Amino acid sequence: MERYGMVIGLRSDKVEEYKRLHAAVWPDVLAMIERCNIRNYSIFLRRFDDGRHYLFSYFEYHGADFAADSAKMAADPTTQQWWSHCMPCQAPLESCAEGEWWAGMEEVFHVD
Predict the structure, then answer these.
(1) Can you give the pTM of this predicted structure?
(2) pLDDT at 89
(3) What does the DSSP assignment read for the chain?
(4) Are 70 and 83 in contact (CB under 8 A)?
(5) Which numeric CATH code is attached to 2-104?
(6) Contacts (Cβ under 8 Å, ≥6 apart) of 62
């Protein structure tokens, strides 16, 4: 099992829409997440004093090939449709790597 933490900006004018979307995630999207070996998935929201909003995601990957499972998820038409609603709400960090949407994070501590 591998743990992943990722971060992305959230447009201030889209906070309520993003919350509404995630209060009722489509069942087929949830099923695809599970089929792609992702478990214990959470997204957290933080508003900073300067008015910027950031999302932090955490999940555990239980498969053998994260790149292949990520590609499978990205190719799924229902997931693509879901992302078409979510992505306009998000604001990738300027420091993202080439082709990266959510910025990956380095794990510096873990305890069970």
Answers:
(1) 0.91
(2) 98
(3) -EEEEEEEEE-GGGHHHHHHHHHT--HHHHHHHHHTTEEEEEEEEEE-TTS-EEEEEEEEE-SS-HHHHHHHHHH-HHHHHHHHHHGGGEE--TTPPTT-SSEE--------
(4) no
(5) 3.30.70.1090
(6) 1, 37, 38, 39
